[in-house]
């Protein structure tokens, strides 16, 4: 017991703290906090017959909002994990030193008082913030008040509050079978409520006022000031309870007096203070033998009264005033009546206890650790640093705790395992999980040795006394060993387990094992060590490529998709034909296009380039458009100021270079399976750093993000990256908040029965919080899309976005809105049958195109897409696979063409090909309605990608909707989120120019009816030109027409007599695409085309299609080009594809099927270039000119697009020449394009 | 009416019947099938989109087995236009309602009417009140349902997919009701292509878009 409290001038307490806390105490580690959720809900059902959501899942859901809290005085929550038997482990930032292990020396000095006051005010501010967020700590206790030792300047330790969310996440303690909060720090009203709680009841949810936290603060401060425990060290829980009950009773009975007192005093705090003091005086008089430690609160009371007397005398010692303020604070907090007790806000706003709040208040700038920043980036770019430093930018020390934690898990760290290691394996039997049958009041009347409250003791020593020594409460703040993490708790557990009543007929009273109250600390150094030792590279190179029947030929039809506007220069390189080698399949474009140091040979060059690059106007605009956007990079370092103005591509280059991602290493990684990449710490660290750098510059960096996302998406940043790819802008968030998400609507009934069935295995979606959010999202989306309706299955489409953006409904909503608008815009209309069957028709054609054998087999078995593919396309596979797989699938969907889901579906069929070919309908349909989730998703994605690359886009053109279906009205009302409509340049989803140029008839898809009636798909003439001599054009017209009306150069005429027997012959020609041409205006030709296609499909020719519009399309397209050139378009001189006088070599003579056909077509002397469907001018692709050594250039396109494209190409070529002169192929392309104007024209 | 398949010597005859499940959303159609086919129950069974397919055999007597080819359909009203595709050639239908939801019983009556009007005239229809385990929240009385079933000439059963009560009995009673004898004479080849044993799903229904012959 402290005996002397004279004022001295030493500040040993601070030194003690500084010494004790080495530098390690300053860096946050990770704290694991395990406890058990209630299993009360286990066997109960709610009204609709579904089982009640388990308490663990509810806690999981309620926890999520805590993760979003950011305040300097809070330890950030990082994660929550759910284990067996309802064990929950929360993961948060953690520091080694806490208020429980820290004490001030006596006697009190001025400095000590200031320190304590500093701590108090920081705590008050933190509590104020939490209360403002609707969170009551309830279990505030010294162990959770963590301290960062002060710097020399401040002299006051920084306070970080931990474990503040237990009461909130358990829904005011409802979801756990133990009381939340240490009774020694619980306010009287809270302890009474806990004691009266019926732990088996469903409705008992004690709701506390935020003033409960003030009481705990008062108790802690009193203990700090006296270095004595608030309660008698030997006090039992019963005694404490009785004391608090008396105190509370006293407060209630004397309330009348206090009110009259309050009327005399203008200041409410003064009133609260005087009430409190008078109550404590009464307490001292009436209950001298209470459980209260006389040397704590009563001693402070004496102190306060003597200080007040001193002040009245006129003495004004600064220490006195500081101490007096503290004492006033303590007694304000210790007001037994919760209605009179001031809250944190009250206390902070009053000078009675808080003289200069600004002195201690922390600024709201998020500190560097709460936000992922690449601090090291600028410092590492100093030219003095060698470029080949192993991993400077991505060194572990440069990233914040959330990334460290993520990498720790990537490296195999598991919260549950750590807890087991520290605590000892939990050996919970079923009996032990029986909830306590009795209320606390009953327990209290039992033998104190089994007092169930003992578990609420919060340090190892109190865990030890689980059952044996409860009556002895050894709480003395000064007595705790500093960082004694529970080496001895294993014994404690054994002891506790031994004591547990194993007879199930007895009420299980001891709930100690449910809640140990201890936090397992993992210091940052330990985490980094773990990551370092577990992150060796995996070199299992994965070369399992898609195996086609013949040699694989790839035209990368993906290379020029719409997203590519700005990264075209890189992806254009990928447009390459690789013939004759199975191994030469193209990697996804970005694999090649990934910026590597090769483009910027050393770091110095990088810097020079960056510095020289002018400010891109778009970036500056973007910076203005997004208010409050943080500066993309730390620019404290004057040596790299220009980084700010460099383009996103340059930044990505730099990150790659700095991370040591050489081309070879990049390649290595690309060949690994995604699952391996995702478990590679180094790679993940690199990717996270790269993406975070890019995300910081979003939206200016959107194109680059998309390009990088084609390689892969690091799971850590998936939510943000998806948002960026979909073009979601944060500044539009107000739109969502203005949408009515609550009013009843027709769809409510269906939504309400679907939500509790939607991906319920998922911890977030299965919780009540998740259900509520899902409901709001669905209703909001319906409100924002008045022309669309709710189809069962749409809940599944929402699920990925909700689970990723659980704490940010707007992001989830905006992603959903844009995703549906882009990928499945017409599937959610009230009558979607036309659209749905359009999807099926395209899918059927795609299957026939790539795998005629499988297609024929399935068709003959009656296994049509209508029967199995509806959930595929309607829900984009979300109804088919688990969310974990959906993430991987959608990672690719989002960066590919809109038709990619078709290819994924095709890949699934081909995955099951062997089984499908050998079985019948029942097996097919059973497999596809039941066993689908077991396929290898990654393999399918890869195959789908390759299939997609080989497929001309025009094959995928969806049939137009019938004319009687009115186009969806554009929402124009005030409630409609017109801001969400893609309007700005960066977020272009549908180029508006597409509607300005109506396509000519030969580029317009045929109707659904016509499409369904045809066996093979139609290819547009533009794609025919792109295919070049990879395709064989088979002309089925009569010889007369062929010769007299003209034909496509190098096409082969198939005479009638050979229509059914020519397949062997064609195989020897060995082309990769067979395109059938007829005269579509002649019914006889149409019939011949049909017969011929059937023949080819029967002979299992893959890649068979017919020319859309037949010979008429060729003619019309050519006329259009002619018209254009006569209209004076100067840039290109066109060359006709016509061959008016075909040579005999190219024709088959009717009577001789064995007559020689040239194995190869003579080398082309010109290049024909088609414009891919839907691409606009600035997204044009540069064709594979380099390979063909062309002499002339032909453009086939609708009006107004050809010339702009050439201009674009020239611009791009010029740009590339200046930007990267090493790209010799492009240089020759540029030369070629410049000379193109001089080529001659051939008239038909 | 059913396709006969001799399955091995002495094993008796196997009759195939196409069965379709209809009923309002979330009444437990899929759960009933899962209980019948796999004897499983999943608290959070995902909703059915389009339709799902299962097969299960029921022994009727020592040498006769009935094999059901079950089409489990989506419950939402919007998917209703697809239903004819599945019930068009069905020989039996199970119309399910939830005994705790009076509205689902009304919906079941509508389904029965539609079947009796548009499906095969000889179709065997069973009315099933599911979620019998939630008897305390019952909103549709057994008497009411039984009276309706008698009046409309339906089989009737109250069952629980969760506990499994009456589920097998239900399908067995349907199997017994199937006209096995008439089939033996090979009348009425409902199957469009005689050789295949696949359940025919009619894609040429007037209510479905013109896609039936797609690439066939």
TrEMBL record, chain A:
Q: Where is the Rhodanese domain?
A: 1027-1123
**Where's the Protein kinase domain?**
1-359
Q: Output the Gene Ontology terms for molecular function.
A: ATP binding; GTPase activator activity; protein kinase activity; small GTPase binding
**Comp. bias intervals (Basic and acidic residues):** 449-458
Which Pfam families did the record assign? Pkinase (PF00069), RabGAP-TBC (PF00566), Rhodanese (PF00581)
What ranges does the record list as Polar residues composition bias? 460-470
Rab-GAP TBC domain location is 712-897
Extract the ranges annotated as region (Disordered).
449-491
SUPFAM superfamilies (UniProt xref): Protein kinase-like (PK-like), Rhodanese/Cell cycle control phosphatase, Ypt/Rab-GAP domain of gyp1p
This chain belongs to which protein, by name?
Rab-GTPase-TBC domain-containing protein
Species of provenance: Dimargaris verticillata
Lineage of origin? Eukaryota, Fungi, Fungi incertae sedis, Zoopagomycota, Kickxellomycotina
TrEMBL record, chain B:
User: A GO molecular function for this record?
Assistant: GTPase activity
What InterPro entries does the annotation carry? P-loop_NTPase, Small_GTP-bd, Small_GTPase
A Gene Ontology BP annotation from the UniProt entry? vesicle-mediated transport
UniProt entry keywords in alphabetical sequence: Cell membrane, GTP-binding, Lipoprotein, Membrane, Nucleotide-binding, Prenylation, Protein transport, Transport
* Segments of skewed composition (Polar residues): 182-216
Q: Quick one: where is this thing mainly located? A: membrane
What Pfam families does the record point to? Answer: Ras
Q: Which Gene3D superfamilies match?
A: P-loop containing nucleotide triphosphate hydrolases
Locations listed in the record: Cell membrane
Q: Which GO terms of the cellular component aspect does the record hold?
A: endosome; plasma membrane
Annotated coiled-coil segments of the chain: none
Q: Which PROSITE patterns match?
A: RAB (PS51419), RAS (PS51421), RHO (PS51420)
PANTHER family registered for this protein in UniProt:
PTHR47978
Protein name, UniProt field: GTP-binding protein of the rab/ypt
Q: Which organism is it from?
A: Dimargaris verticillata
């Amino acid at each position: 017991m402290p005996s002397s409290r004279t004022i001295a001038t030493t500040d040993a307490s601070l030194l003690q703290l500084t010494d004790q806390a080495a530098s390690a105490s300053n860096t946050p580690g990770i704290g694991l906090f395990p406890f058990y959720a209630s299993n009360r809900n286990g066997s109960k059902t709610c009204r609709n017959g579904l089982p009640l959501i388990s308490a663990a899942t509810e806690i999981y859901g309620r926890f999520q909002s805590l993760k979003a809290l950011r305040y300097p005085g809070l330890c950030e929550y990082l994660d929550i994990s759910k284990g067996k038997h309802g064990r929950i482990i929360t993961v948060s930032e953690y520091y080694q030193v806490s208020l429980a292990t820290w004490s001030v020396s006596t006697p009190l000095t001025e400095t000590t008082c200031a320190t304590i006051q500093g701590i108090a005010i920081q705590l008050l501010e933190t509590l104020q913030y939490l209360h403002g967020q609707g969170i009551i700590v309830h279990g505030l206790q010294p162990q959770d008040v963590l301290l960062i030792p002060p710097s020399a300047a401040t002299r006051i330790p920084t306070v970080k509050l931990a474990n503040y969310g237990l009461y909130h996440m358990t829904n005011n303690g409802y979801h756990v079978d133990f009381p939340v909060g240490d009774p020694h720090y619980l306010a009287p009203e809270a302890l009474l409520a806990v004691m009266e709680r019926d732990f088996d009841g469903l409705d008992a949810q004690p709701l506390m006022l935020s003033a409960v936290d003030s009481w705990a603060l008062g108790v802690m401060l009193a203990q700090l000031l006296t270095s004595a425990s608030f309660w008698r060290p030997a006090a039992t829980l019963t005694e404490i309870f009785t004391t608090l009950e008396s105190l509370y009773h006293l407060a209630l009975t004397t309330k009348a007096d206090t009110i009259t007192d309050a009327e005399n005093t203008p200041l409410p705090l003064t009133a609260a203070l005087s009430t409190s003091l008078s109550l404590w005086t009464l307490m001292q008089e009436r209950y001298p033998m209470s459980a209260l430690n006389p040397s704590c609160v009563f001693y402070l009371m004496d102190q306060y009264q003597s200080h007040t007397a001193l002040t009245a005398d006129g003495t004004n010692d600064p220490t006195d005033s500081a101490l007096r303020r503290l004492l006033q604070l303590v007694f304000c907090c210790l007001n037994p009546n919760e209605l009179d007790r001031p809250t944190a806000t009250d206390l902070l706003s009053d000078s009675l206890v808080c003289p200069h709040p600004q002195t201690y208040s922390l600024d709201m700038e998020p500190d560097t650790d709460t936000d992922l920043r690449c601090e090291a980036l600028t410092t590492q770019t100093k030219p003095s640093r060698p470029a080949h430093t192993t991993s400077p930018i991505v060194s572990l020390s440069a990233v914040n705790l959330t990334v460290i934690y993520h990498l720790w898990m990537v490296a195999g760290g598991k919260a549950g395992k750590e807890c087991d290691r520290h605590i000892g394996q939990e050996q919970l039997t079923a009996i032990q999980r029986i909830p306590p049958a009795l209320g606390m009041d009953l327990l209290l009347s039992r033998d104190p040795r089994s007092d169930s409250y003992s578990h609420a003791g919060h340090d190892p020593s109190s865990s030890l006394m689980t059952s044996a020594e409860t009556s002895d409460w050894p709480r003395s703040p000064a007595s705790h060993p500093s960082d004694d993490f529970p080496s001895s708790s294993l014994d404690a557990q054994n002891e506790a387990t031994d004591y547990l009543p194993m007879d199930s007929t007895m009420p299980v009273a001891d709930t100690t094992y449910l809640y140990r109250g201890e936090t397992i600390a993992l210091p940052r150094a330990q985490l980094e060590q773990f990551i370092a030792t577990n992150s060796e590279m995996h070199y299992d190179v994965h070369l399992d490529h898609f195996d086609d029947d013949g040699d694989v030929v790839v035209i990368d039809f993906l290379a020029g998709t719409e997203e590519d506007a700005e990264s075209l220069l890189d992806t254009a390189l990928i447009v390459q034909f690789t013939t004759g080698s199975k191994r030469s399949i193209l990697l996804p474009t970005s694999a090649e296009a990934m910026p590597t140091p090769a483009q910027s040979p050393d770091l110095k060059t990088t810097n020079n380039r960056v510095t020289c690059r002018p400010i891109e106007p778009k970036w500056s605009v973007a910076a203005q458009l997004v208010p409050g956007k943080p500066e993309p990079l730390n620019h404290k370092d004057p040596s790299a100021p220009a980084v700010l103005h460099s383009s996103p591509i340059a930044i990505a280059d730099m990150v790659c270079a700095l991370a040591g991602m050489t081309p070879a290493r990049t390649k290595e990684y690309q060949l690994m399976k995604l699952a391996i990449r995702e478990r590679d710490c180094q790679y993940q660290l690199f990717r996270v750093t790269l993406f975070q750098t890019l995300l910081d510059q979003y939206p200016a960096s959107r194109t680059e993000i998309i390009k990088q996302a084609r390689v892969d998406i690091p799971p850590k940043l998936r939510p943000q990256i998806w948002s960026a790819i979909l073009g979601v802008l944060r500044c539009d968030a107000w739109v969502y908040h203005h949408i009515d998400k609550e009013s009843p609507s027709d769809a409510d009934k269906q939504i309400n029965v679907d939500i509790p069935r939607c991906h319920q295995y998922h911890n977030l979606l299965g919780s009540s919080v998740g259900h509520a959010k899902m409901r709001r999202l669905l209703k909001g989306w319906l409100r924002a899309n008045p022309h669309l309706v709710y189809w069962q299955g749409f809940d599944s489409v929402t699920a990925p976005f909700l689970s990723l953006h659980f704490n940010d409904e707007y992001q989830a909503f905006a992603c959903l809105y844009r995703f549906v608008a882009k990928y499945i815009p017409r599937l959610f209309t009230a009558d979607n049958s036309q659209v749905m069957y359009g999807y099926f028709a395209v899918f059927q054609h795609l299957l026939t195109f790539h795998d005629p054998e499988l297609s024929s087999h399935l068709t003959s078995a009656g296994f049509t897409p209508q029967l199995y593919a509806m959930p595929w396309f309607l829900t984009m596979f979300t109804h088919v696979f688990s969310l974990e797989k959906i993430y991987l699938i959608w990672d690719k969907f989002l960066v590919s063409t809109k038709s990619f889901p078709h290819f994924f579906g095709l890949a699934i069929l081909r995955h099951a090909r062997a089984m499908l070919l050998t079985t019948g309908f029942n097996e097919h349909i059973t497999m596809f309605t039941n066993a689908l989730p077991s396929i290898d998703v990654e393999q399918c994605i890869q195959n789908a990608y390759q299939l997609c690359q080989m497929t001309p886009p025009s094959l995928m053109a969806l049939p137009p909707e019938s004319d009687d279906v009115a186009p969806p009205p554009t929402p124009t009302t005030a409630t409609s989120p017109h801001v969400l409509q893609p309007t700005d340049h960066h977020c272009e989803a549908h180029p508006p120019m597409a509607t300005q140029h109506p396509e000519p008839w030969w580029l317009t898809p045929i109707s659904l009816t016509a499409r369904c009636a045809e066996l093979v798909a139609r290819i547009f003439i533009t794609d025919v030109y792109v295919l070049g001599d990879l395709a064989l054009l088979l002309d089925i017209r009569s010889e007369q027409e062929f010769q007299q009306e003209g034909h496509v150069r190098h096409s082969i005429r198939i005479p009638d007599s050979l229509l059914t027997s020519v397949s062997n012959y064609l195989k020897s020609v060995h082309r990769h695409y067979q395109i059938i041409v007829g005269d579509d205006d002649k019914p006889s030709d149409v019939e011949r085309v049909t017969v011929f296609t059937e023949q080819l499909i029967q002979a299992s020719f893959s890649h068979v299609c017919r020319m859309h519009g037949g010979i008429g399309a060729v003619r019309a397209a050519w006329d259009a080009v002619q018209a254009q050139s006569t209209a004076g378009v100067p840039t290109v001189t066109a060359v006709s594809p016509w061959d008016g006088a075909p040579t005999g070599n190219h024709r088959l003579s009717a009577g001789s099927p064995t007559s020689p056909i040239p194995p190869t077509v003579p080398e082309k002397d010109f290049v024909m270039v088609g414009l891919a469907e839907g691409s606009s001018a600035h997204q044009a692709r540069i064709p594979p000119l380099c390979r063909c050594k062309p002499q002339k250039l032909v453009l086939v396109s609708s009006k107004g697009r050809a010339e702009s494209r050439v201009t674009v190409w020239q611009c791009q070529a010029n740009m590339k020449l200046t930007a990267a002169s090493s790209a010799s192929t492009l240089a020759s392309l540029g030369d070629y394009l410049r000379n193109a104007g001089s080529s001659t024209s051939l008239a038909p | 009416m059913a396709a006969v398949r001799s399955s091995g010597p002495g094993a008796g005859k196997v009759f195939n019947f196409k069965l379709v499940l209809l009923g309002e959303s979330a009444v437990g159609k899929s759960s009933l099938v899962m209980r019948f086919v796999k004897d499983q129950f999943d608290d959070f069974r995902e909703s059915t989109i389009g339709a799902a397919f299962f097969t299960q055999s029921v022994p009727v007597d020592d040498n006769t087995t009935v094999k059901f080819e079950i089409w489990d359909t989506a419950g939402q009203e919007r998917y209703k236009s697809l239903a004819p595709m599945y019930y068009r050639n069905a020989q039996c239908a199970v119309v399910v309602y939830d005994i705790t939801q009076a509205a689902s019983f009304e919906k079941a009556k509508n389904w029965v009417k539609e079947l009796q009007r548009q499906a095969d005239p000889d179709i065997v229809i069973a009315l099933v009140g599911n979620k019998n385990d939630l008897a305390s929240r019952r909103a549709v009385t057994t008497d009411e349902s039984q009276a309706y079933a008698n009046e409309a000439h339906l089989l009737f059963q109250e069952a629980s997919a969760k506990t499994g009560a009456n589920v097998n009995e239900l399908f067995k009673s349907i199997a017994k009701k199937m006209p096995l004898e008439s089939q033996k004479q090979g009348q009425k080849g409902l199957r469009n292509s005689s050789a295949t044993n696949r359940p025919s799903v009619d894609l040429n229904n007037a209510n479905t878009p013109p896609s039936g012959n797609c690439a066939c």
